[in-house]
Amino acid sequence: MKFTLSQIRKIAVNKPFEFDEIVDVSELETMNNDIRKIKPVRVHGKADIHGNQFFFSFLIEGEMVLPCARTLVDVPYPFTVKANEVFSTSSYDEYDEEEHEIHLIDGEVLDVTPIIKENILLEVPFRVFSKETNPEEGAPSKGNGWEFISEVKTEKTIDPRLKKLESLLKNNKKEK
């Protein structure tokens, strides 16, 4: 989502510069995070100008797909992010940059897409859970040479490798 500074200045003289766009942030799927899929997000808000600084206040709305913490199935996670960001054309604001997190604008085009992606990444929850109690597409409970055994399972199973030992123990009891 890019804006030219002249476009913002032209409109923001009398009233705030308003915008409402759909932004493709599918690049987040390839990054090292839990986002499996993300649909294009809606970004709408306004921008005000005060001297060399551009104050953006916007809302990011969308839906991402994350893995369930228990079963690893896909869980749709809708999100809404409110963000306030400050951009500046003046390099003299660098001393404020650390304290107020002011983004420096290089050139005549302001690209807000990296800030949108950053705010979405900050919104990714630590873990999500599927509402289904027994999803069929979840993590497997058996595999090649292994099986998940819960504490609830009280059935006593004997390892097939130890079957012969059991027969030896039975023979010893009979002899006595």
The domain tally reads 1
Write the element-wise H/E pattern from the N-terminal end onward. EHEEEEEHEEHEEH
Number of helices: 4
The percentage of residues in β strands lies in: 35-45%
Q: Give the oligomeric state.
A: single chain
> Terminal Cα separation, in Å?
87 Å
Uncertain regions spanning at least 5 consecutive residues? none
Radius of gyration: 29 Å
Largest β sheet strand count, sense and barrel closure: 6 strands, mixed
Helix vs. strand class: alpha+beta
Overall geometric form: rod-shaped
Record field, number of beta strands: 10
Please, could you describe this protein's structure?
This protein is α+β, with helices and mostly antiparallel strands. The chain has one domain (1-176). The chain is built from four helices and ten strands; from the N terminus they run βαβββββαββαββα. The chain has helices at 5-11, 94-100, 113-123, 163-175; strands at 2-4, 17-23, 37-38, 41-50, 53-67, 74-88, 102-104, 109-111, 142-143, 146-147. The strands form three sheets. Strands 2, 3, 4, 5, 6 and 7 form a six-stranded mixed beta sheet that branches. Strand 5 and strand 6 form a beta hairpin. The longest helix has 13 residues, at 163-175. The mean pLDDT is 80.
Describe the structure concisely for a colleague.
With 176 residues, the chain is of the alpha+beta class. It contains four helices and ten strands; from the N terminus they run βαβββββαββαββα. The radius of gyration is 29 Å and the shape is rod-shaped.
